Amino acid sequence: EDVLNVSHMDVAEQRISLSPVRVGTLVHDAAAMAEPLARVRGLKFHVFVTDEEAIVQTDPARLRQVLLNLLVNAVKFTDRGEVELIARCSETEVSFIVRDTGIGIAREHLDRIFDPFWQVQQTTTRVVGGSGLGLAVSLRLMTLLGGKLVVESELGQGTVFTVTLPVGQSASP
């Protein structure tokens, strides 16, 4: 699916279908798909939502894809500890935070992690599989949804990705 999305990234016809959706529903749907992966790896998996009934105007399938990309990465790059999915709601925005206790990302690599096909671990030394497209697709989808995707990380200390959407925003054309 990521490969297909990358092939459509620059196509103006990529459709965003906005609808009102409960924040709690989005979070629990994404968590239901990621939690079994965490359990298999022996990781704790936590979900926190400040307002289950809060509504955000977004494309639920696209936002769910972003959250799943982030959660799957968090699980893949965490050998022990935990993965958290947090939703914080305010009157003006909703933030979805994916936090892990994994390997982290060195400061010098943070600018490149959103480049298509680029991975911190290169092909000959890579321990974890993947195409290197999930973060590039996620960033592009967040731009189309009128939101932001930012990362904070420290090598050996884990990573925090934050997805922020204005409440009641409209998507970019």
Give an overview in words.
By secondary structure, this protein is α+β, with helices and mostly antiparallel strands. The protein is built from 4 helices and 7 strands; from the N terminus they run αβαββαββαββ. The strands form 2 sheets. It has a 5-stranded mixed beta sheet. The chain has a two-stranded antiparallel ribbon with strand order 1-3. A hairpin with a 3-residue loop joins strand 6 (148-154) and strand 7. The longest helix is centred in the first third of the chain and has 18 residues, at 23-40. The radius of gyration is 16 Å and the shape is globular. It starts with a helix and ends in a 7-residue tail after the last strand.
Brief overview, please?
The chain has 173 residues and is an alpha+beta fold.
Biggest sheet features: 5 strands, mixed
Uncertain runs: 1-13, 122-131
Strand content: 25-35%
Our measurement of the CA-to-CA distance between the termini, rounded to an integer number of angstroms, reads 22 Å
| Alpha-beta classification | alpha+beta
State the shape: globular
The SSE string, one letter per element, is HEHEEHEEHEE
Q: Number of helix segments? A: 4
What strand order characterises the main sheet?
2-4-5-7-6
Task: Please give the number of β-strands.
Answer: 7
Mean pLDDT: 83
**What share of residues is helical?**
25-40%
Give the C-alpha Rg.
16 Å
